Amino acid sequence: MESPYIGNRPEIDWTAAYVAAPRFYVRPDGVRFGVFALNEGVDTILPKAPQNRYQAEGAPVAEWRLLLYSRTKGDVIGDTDFFTAIRRLGIGGYIIDDNETHSLVRGLTLTELDALMR
After folding, report:
1. What DSSP letter does each residue of 13-64 carry, written as one string?
2. Is the pTM of this model over 0.90?
3. 20 to 30 A Cα–Cα from 98, which one of 63, 89, 106, 107?
């Protein structure tokens, strides 16, 4: 039987996590931006560098946002800069695993989602 540990770290199962897909929008000034959703209580796989991976209609996208959705409230509770949120997720220990291109974020509580916007 194979050990569930790699070194001293338990192996993490990514297969049940939601793989976040970008949605693209245009601001009133014509600038395109990309959005990923992070849903309360849902383990989510997010890209580390979406600006290198995705384009909107063949054009690079420089601005990325993270939309925060509360299942408890049944509504969007806000959004924040994607890269700032990823830093906060890492500092807070909410990123439970990662590889070269993606991070696995554990399902967050409503309180934890709220804290990402501060």
Report:
1. --TTSEE---EEEE-TTS-EEEEEEEETT--EEEES-HHHH-EETTEE--EE
2. no
3. 63
